[in-house]
Amino acid sequence: MAEKVVITQGKYLTSAVQMDQYPEVRRKEIVFIGRSNVGKSSLINSLTRVHQLARVSSQPGKTQTINFYEIGAKIDDNPQRQDFYLVDLPGYGYAKTGAKRRKIWSKFINEYLLSSEDLQFVCQLIDIRHEPMASDVEMFQWLVEHNLPVLVVATKADKLGKNGIAKSVAQIKKTLGVPELDVLPYSSVKNSGREELLQVIGDCLMETGE
Questions:
Q1: C-beta atoms surrounding 59 within 10 Å
Q2: 161-194 burial, b if ≥16 CB within 10 A, otherwise e?
Q3: Which of 33, 98, 188, 209 is placed for a possible disulfide with 42 were both Cys, Cβ 3.0 to 4.6 Å?
Q4: Helix, strand, or coil here: 113?
Q5: Residue 103 — very low, low, confident or very high, per pLDDT cuts 50/70/90?
Q6: Cα separation, 125 vs 135, whole angstroms
Q7: How many domains does the chain have?
Q8: How many Å apart are CA 84 and CA 81, to the nearest integer?
């Protein structure tokens, strides 16, 4: 069956730590955030199918800026390509990051999340193999408190069997305190969950806010 949402291009655009460094051309923004080493770069590469679009590092806390990627998508039979920004935020919760650095990161991440008029929703990535940590819960609650739409994406789903995935998803919902929460299991290795995530993004891009 043909994919409803097809990524036609993906390229790194710019990095920013303050507002005057954001892209000049405004587009809808889909944001990715998660703990360091949660598999964010791998998921971005899987989602876009652009090899090494986001650099995968074995060193947690490597991403230290807000990275903007310009993505093009063809949706269903719509002849017009939909361009948007995929925004990769620095990982949170990395113990070896100094308090001063964490404070700086927190400031410019919060500034971006609260100031962007084009932000559509935030994909919060959580490792499906573990119960959400305190920093995951804190970030989720912060996003909800500030009325930012959140889609929880449970990464590394290939590490568990079907029953294990169901059990972990239930645990994530319980720990975050939202029983009816949508949690999308995703495997960057097998690309499972990719079509579902692209569909959410596609629906968002086709919505007219005017």
A1: 9
A2: eeeebeebbebbbebbeeeeeebbbbbbeeebbb
A3: 188
A4: helix
A5: low
A6: 12
A7: 1
A8: 10
Coil/strand/helix, residue 186 = coil
Parent domain of 133: 5-206
| Element (DSSP H or E) covering residue 122 | strand 119-127
Residue 117: give its domain's CATH number: 3.40.50.300
pLDDT tens digits for 176-199?
A: 999 999 999 999 999 999 999 999
Q: What are phi and psi of 143, to 5 degrees?
A: -65, -45
- Residue 3: pLDDT band with limits 50, 70, 90: confident
- Give me the phi and psi of 14, to 5 degrees please: -165, 165
